[in-house]
Amino acid sequence: MNSDRFSFLNYPEPREGPQVPYKNEAQSIPVFRGTTLAIGATLIHNIGFIQSQFWRNAGFGVICEVPHLHEYAGRYDPTVIPVDNAPRDVPTPAVGKRKGANFYYTSADYHALYSSGELTPTAVVETLLPLVRRDAKPPGKHSIAFLESKVEIVRAAAEASTERYKQGRPLGPLDGIPVAIKDEVHITGYKRTLGTKLDFKNGSDATSWCVQQWQDAGAIVIGKTTMHELGLDTNNNNPNFGTPRNPHNNKYYCGGSSGGSGYAIGAGLVPIALGADGGGSIRIPSSFCGIWGLKPTHGRVSGTPSLSLAPTVGVLGPMASSIDDLALAYRVMAAPAPASQDPISSQFPRPLPLPSDRERAKKIGIVRDWIDRAEAPVRDVFDSALDYYREHGYEVIDITIPYLPEGQRAHVLTIMAEIASGVDVRQIRHLTAPNKVLVSLGMWQITAQELLAAQRLRNLLMTHLAHLFKTHPGLMIFSPSTPIPGWHIGGGEADLSRGLSDGKTSVRNMEYVWLANFTGCPSISCPAGYARESGVPVGVMAMSNWGTEEDLIDFARDGEGILDLHVPSGDESVWEDVIAKAKEEQSA
Fold first, then answer.
1. Region (Disordered) spans which residues (predicted)?
2. For residue range 365-388, what is the model confidence (pLDDT) as tens digits?
3. Which of 48, 238, 400, 480 has its CA at 20 to 30 Å from residue 151's CA atom?
């Protein structure tokens, strides 16, 4: 969507925020692991005095000290709805094939082979199932990234797709394409655990609207992917179901909380997956796994009640191994839901690709003090990307955004409160140690004053962003996806089996992505290079005006030449050439 085409419901009043100097200090948060973590979590969960001391030391009280908050009402839901009732048909976007043997497959590679009869969806599924099934004996090579795969459902979908191609009547470019869906999302017949050992189906066995759109277009869900427990961190460490390692370097996390979906793409298992910014979910894997990720305008594609634990910070978004597939997946899933199913989603217009030759502003805004906090390997990649955009006609301007450090704390506080509101007190003891701490704090330590102050600060940030977008039409707020060049698995196998509480790295990792999540602005994360020492991909992120997902897609296309993204390689590579394996097995 392009915001010039629409009027809006709930658009913030454009209002320049206060001029305050950027000031951010490294937080002194100890790392807990192993026995220390288990004991500390039990004490904090059960002893109110220790809990309150821990909360005060975390420094969230600074939110209430922001001097300008009395000038702003609270903004409890960041949903901004573009209004356009004109009827429209959404054209099928073209998807290019992979560029060579060292590149990822796209949906176009599958579709062409299916159409020619050289390969069938059934053959692809029969290749994938042994690789991803957790219930197989022995479990599949990549099953650590999958919560479950319903074999009968998967095979039935593949057989139906195979028959459609045989009859020369495929449903479209997504027909027969394998996709993966994050555990957080509702799918009929599947568990919904949110990465815990608990049941969070909430009595529903329906399929979320966005997933149904993919399935109606013929896509085959090969399984649900694992996630960080409750989505409450960004490394995807999960002792409950196991932690998939980064396909580019197995000493690093994939990033989270949608790390299972990130792994599924990064390892070559699927070209498209679904992640979610719901509850505490902040999707980082597009940076760490070298994939493309789009976070649409809030509420855009949900379509199922109780989709996440945190309705005011939750939104779904596609992830893909190419920008073409990202655009295709988004346009299919973003059809508005019926009002009876989701009254908010139903108000959004259908996404409409904009003419490629249209005149559009090419303007990038950067907050220099903010991006200066990125570590050197990340900053090198970011600066190269910025130079590339300059060389291709983009104007780079300096902008300011007030209270960024305080806003990040307001975002975290809001997440913790909303997660706690969706968890029964009796369920806390079933959580892993790090989340016993976070949910206990969210449940018993956040005051009404702090929560209300956080929502006032949200409004301050949203009105200031509206001012920036009005002052600079077409503005892309540009930053790294994360300031760190990957999250190293510091404690090795012990951290993976017992969990980790590293608040300092968690805060650092979210330093850029939180703003779009908290304010409901759409954003896109694009692979832009590799960290020098680890070889882990580094991403850059653009955030734009509400309702401008299509502008973000065009912006990402403009930067496609920054990086020729290659598949993971080397002796320890986990990348699977699914198409080659399927061809071999089909001809055997």
1. 1-20
2. 999 999 999 999 999 999 999 999
3. 238
Q: Which residues contact 22 (CB under 8 A, 6 or more apart)?
A: 367, 369, 370, 400, 404, 405
Query: Is 440 among the residues known to form the active site?
Result: no
Determine whether 281 is an active site residue: yes
pLDDT tens digits for range 69-81 = 999 999 999 999 9
* Phi/psi of residue 417, nearest 5 degrees: -65, -40
Interstrand relation of 81-83 and 178-182 (parallel, antiparallel or unpaired) = unpaired
CB count within 10 Å of CB 3 equals 21
| pLDDT for residue 389 is more than 90 | yes
Mean pLDDT score, 53-82: 90
- pLDDT mean across residues, the chain: 90
107 is catalytic: no
Residue 490, both tokens: 């510091």
* pLDDT tops 60 at residue 362: yes
- From the candidates 182, 224, 295, 436, give the one annotated as an active-site residue: 182
**CA of residue 280 relative to chain centroid, distance:** 11
Residue 380 CA to residue 376 CA, distance in Å, equals: 6
Residue in 143, 149, 208, 281 annotated catalytic? 281
Q: Which listed residue (257, 258, 287, 534) is catalytic? A: 257
